[in-house]
Amino acid sequence: MKFANSIKMSDAGLDSLILELHKIHAIKFGKFKLKSGLLSPIYFDLRVIISYPALMDRVAASLHKRAKDAGVQFDNLCGVPYTALPLCTIICSANKYPMLIRRKEAKDYGTNRMVEGVIHPGQRCLIVEDVVTSGGSVLETAEALKKEGLKITDAVVFVDREQGGSLMLADKGITLHSVVSVSKLLEVLLKAGKIDLATSQDVKSFTQEHNTYKPPIPDEILSYGARAGLPDTHPLAAQLLKIMEEKKTNLCVSADVTSSKELLDIASKLGPLICVLKTHVDILEDFSEDVTSKLAEFAMRHNFLIFEDRKILMFADIGNMLKNEGECGPQTSLWPHIINAHGLPDPGLLQCIRVVNKSLGCGCLLIAQMSSQGCLATAGYTQAVVKMAEEHSDFVFGFISGSKISEKPGFVHMTPGVQMHIGGDELGQQYSTPEDVICRKGSDIIIVGRGIIASPDRLKAAEEYRKIGWEAYLKRLSQGS
Ligand code: 5BU
After folding, report:
1. What is the DSSP letter of 438?
2. Which of 280, 342, 371 to mutate to test the pocket of ligand 1 (most atoms within 8 A of CB)?
3. Peptide bond just before 82 cis, omega within 30 deg
């Protein structure tokens, strides 16, 4: 038999694998009652692959490749019972890795063990799973293995249903690596004409609406004002949190417009309703220093902060290049209060941009997650960015993220991709609602662009977002007490 590990999982290979799985009804569309009682428009039944050995080899190979590509270090593997057991067996047999089996129920005779196989406490065990929804089954297996003294830092799964499993596992110190996400799967099936657009949208809405992730609730949920007064809170975060408390707003308007007149009009009219004005001065067709000085005047008058979004002219080179090109410093005499940076290049970048900006009282938000579909900033990356922020907390005061990702109350979380209804645009932007972002995902600030800017009455739209965002915050506070 030709072993599965010889198969190269190119993009085309993955697409054809998805189509094969759809053909054998391992992926089904319709109405399926889940354990929870919910009716799901999609169902995965990967159990059937045991009847298709060649396909089973390919799924096993893709799991192995995913773990290897991610550089996961492990000493042995354990499949979550039952569907992943044969997959794990194939990976171990083909690659000569030692395997462990976790029993679901203890025997009442013989050794009475919950985990079979030779265990060396301290060794790292990689968990293998077929489908992850909440992450509960992976966690159960991880707990059983940990009791035996094994270290569990990673799990590899074939399908991530994108309903919060990876975040929940990340909270427990386990990085989830998935071969394919539900979004990718829908994309492939749609392209191949196996499903229609309505089915794809239906599944997307279902996964977004039934996200199982609940950020751990701290003993006490602190108000914005209380967090402003904590000794470890960065001065800029403290200023921002105070503004939010005073003006009763957690709204940041993303003023993505190309004319200075329009930008200044937004700043003057919406200023009283917002805590932050996010600008992209690099898209202004008629930029001049005059614009930044007027923006600064409005910021003073209406008490908001200016956040210049640096993603287009991104700080994403190595620190040294940015130093050489003089890119880190102010391009205008009036520098914004807030800038952002990716964690991708290395901490050298932060050191470089900090030198110039910190002396000007500017603070930085690190981009830990993005709202765009298929974004590569997943759990392991996000965790690394949180660590980077903690190590540079004299300059970094928070994150751009989809949810609360740090338990440190001094860090501020700002979330883009917000509109009144869940959905997205044709270029991959994905929207959550203010209630979802603030109340359920525990973020602090909603960043709203087209939800307000494209409205015929921007003032009215901004007031609606402010009100809903603030009510979601009050609800979050009341739930914590
Ligand atoms: P929208 O019109 O609400 O979709 O605009 C969103 C804004 O937030 C826009 O300026 C983006 O550049 C910005 N953004 C985002 O949409 N998603 C991200 O992950 C990040 C920023 Br980081």
Report:
1. I
2. 371
3. yes
Q: Which residues are catalytic?
A: 311, 317
Separation CA 223–CA 79 (nearest Å):
43
Query: DSSP letters along 252-314, please?
Result: EEE---S-HHHHHHHHHHHGGG-SEEEE-GGG-TT--HHHHHHHHHHHHHHT-EEEE--STT-
Taking the centre of ligand 1 as the mean of its atom positions, its distance from the CA of residue 132, in whole angstroms, is 28
Angle at 127 between CA 125 and CA 133, to 5 degrees: 155
Per-residue pLDDT tens over the stretch 122-131? 999 999 999 9
Tell me, in angstroms, the distance from the centre of ligand 1 to residue 417's CA. 6
Residue pLDDT, tens place only, 398-446 = 999 999 999 899 999 999 999 999 888 888 888 999 999 999 999 999 9
Nearest to 59 by CA among 91, 99, 31, 32: 91
Report helix, strand or coil for 32.
Answer: strand
Nearest alpha carbon, ligand 1 atom 10:
254
Residue tagged 């990340």 (tokens): 170
All residue ranges of the chain with pLDDT < 50 are 1-8, 312-313, 317-319, 321-334, 481
Beta carbon of 79 within 6 Å of any ligand 1 atom: no
Q: Are 340 and 367 in contact (CB under 8 A)?
A: yes
Coil, helix or strand at residue 291: helix
pTM of the model: 0.58
CB distance 428 to ligand 1 below 6 Å: no
- Which segments within 197-351 are labelled E, that is strand? 251-254, 276-279, 305-308, 338-342
308 dihedral zone (left: phi>0; alpha: psi -120 to 50; beta) = beta
State which of 252, 253, 256 you would mutate to test the pocket of ligand 1, scoring each by most atoms of that ligand within 8 A of its C-beta: 256
